[in-house]
């Protein structure tokens, strides 16, 4: 799944967990990526066992799928979430430092 950054992987797995019945087109729109990329990623996630796809048995549109995270997928989502959180915390600390430096610069200009 190196085609996706940790942030994109986190967002895709989170979206699948929250809304497993979204169409691929809806996923692409929600994630801001192409439909082809969503299709490629879903196939990759299925092949590595992170999700499984199944039809809605009562849905009149027999092409509609539901994408469910497997136990392996839930575990990977946890790992990706921890990596994503660590990166965001690091970015936050750097931003706080930069803001502090800018405030000091503004004070010295007065």
TrEMBL record:
Transmembrane portions of the chain: none
One Pfam family, short name: HTH_24
InterPro entries referenced in this protein's UniProt entry, alphabetically: MarR_EPS, WH-like_DNA-bd_sf, WH_DNA-bd_sf
Name of the molecule in the record: MarR family EPS-associated transcriptional regulator
Lineage: Bacteria, Pseudomonadati, Pseudomonadota, Gammaproteobacteria, SAR86 cluster
């Amino acid at each position: 799944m190196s085609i996706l950054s940790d942030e994109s992987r986190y967002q895709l797995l989170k979206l699948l967990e929250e809304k497993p019945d979204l169409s691929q087109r809806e996923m692409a729109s929600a994630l801001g990526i192409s439909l082809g990329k969503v299709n490629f990623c879903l196939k990759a996630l299925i092949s590595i066992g992170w999700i499984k796809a199944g039809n809605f048995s009562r849905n009149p549109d027999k092409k509609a799928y539901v994408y469910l995270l497997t136990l392996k997928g839930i575990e990977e989502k946890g790992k990706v979430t921890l990596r994503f959180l660590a990166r965001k915390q690091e970015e936050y600390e750097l931003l706080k430092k930069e803001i502090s430096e800018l405030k000091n610069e503004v004070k010295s200009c007065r």
